[in-house]
Design a protein that fits this description.
Elements lengths: L1 E5 L6 H12 L3 E3 H11 L2 H12 L5 H12 L8 E4 L5 H13 L6 E6 L2 H9 L1 E3 L6 E3 L26 H24 L3 E5 L4 H13 L4
Parallel strand pairs: 1-3, 1-4, 2-3, 4-7
Antiparallel strand pairs: 5-6
Helix pairs in contact: 1-8, 2-3
Bound molecules: BIS(adenosine)-5'-pentaphosphate, magnesium ion and zinc ion.
Zinc ion binds next to loops.
């Protein structure tokens, strides 16, 4: 199972990727999560990515592409992957196709999560994340059992620094300018499958699983 999840910030890529990875027994690979991990560990890569993430723009392609190439070569990714947040512009999409063909791999499908703009802002500003285990919640749509505390590991929940209203606006504009053309790119090559992302989480997962489960790798 080799899937790419495509969709605007807040469309549910991370939420769905986690569930799909568990369902299909393949790793969830999120470029945003890898950058955030490097940032919290104070690596050079984290230092470099910080400026872009804080302002809501894209980390340079060469850096991101090299990072993904390395990650996909790890043992656990040999049986498949759920990619979340990559590729993110046409250049990365073309580079990724070249990378896949070099490695003799073929995408199963590109999952596009469609969600109205008005919904995205409230999803992002209401999102809370666990800094310890990465679990994601929403104040209103997916609240933890105890306010401010992670259900999974008990850590105190935080807000992502790029979930402020101003940075969300930039991220949405960057999506429109740079990422949206990728949907057309994948549609033209018959790889895009669109799903209504504004349904309950388990309903979205079910629709995706039904769509890809029968797809021959
Ligand atoms: P990244 O971490 O990828 O952020 P993003 O694309 O902006 O997407 P989000 O993680 O904000 O949203 P999501 O779609 O995962 O939604 P989620 O499931 O959390 O990237 C961050 C930054 O890293 C970028 O700005 C860039 O700087 C850099 N970067 C990353 N990749 C890069 C690349 N390839 N190239 C260059 N730079 C890169 O859900 C959102 C909220 O909604 C949650 O609270 C959730 O609980 C709730 N929710 C989810 N589904 C539902 C539902 N069905 N109903 C109700 N609520 C729901
Ligand atoms: Mg995410
Ligand atoms: Zn946790």
């Amino acid at each position: 199972m080799e899937l790419v999840l495509l969709g605007p910030p807040g469309s549910g890529k991370g939420t769905q990727a986690k569930l799909l990875a568990a369902r299909f027994g393949v790793p969830h690979i999120s470029t945003g999560d890898i950058f955030r991990k490097n940032l919290s560990e104070g690596t050079d890569l984290g230092q470099l990515a910080r400026r872009y993430m804080d302002e809501g723009t894209l980390v340079p392609d060469d850096v991101t592409e090299a990072m993904v190439r390395e990650r996909l070569r790890e043992t656990d990714a040999q049986k498949g992957f759920i990619l979340d947040g990559f590729p993110r512009n046409l250049a990365q999409g073309e580079h990724f196709d070249a990378m896949l063909s070099e490695e003799g791999r073929t995408l199963t499908a590109v999952i596009y999560l469609a969600v109205d703009r008005a919904v995205l802002m409230s999803r992002l500003t209401g999102r809370r994340v666990c800094p310890k285990c990465g679990a994601t919640y929403h104040l209103e749509f997916n609240p933890p059992k105890a306010i401010g505390v992670c259900d999974v590991c008990g850590a105190e929940l935080v807000q992502r620094p790029d979930d402020s209203e101003g940075t969300v606006s930039t991220r949405l504009a960057v999506y429109d300018a740079e990422t949206a053309p990728l949907a057309t790119y994948y549609q033209k090559s018959g790889r895009l499958r669109e799903f209504d992302g504004d349904q309950p989480v388990d309903q979205v997962t079910r629709a995706i699983v039904e769509s890809v489960a029968g797809t021959d790798d």
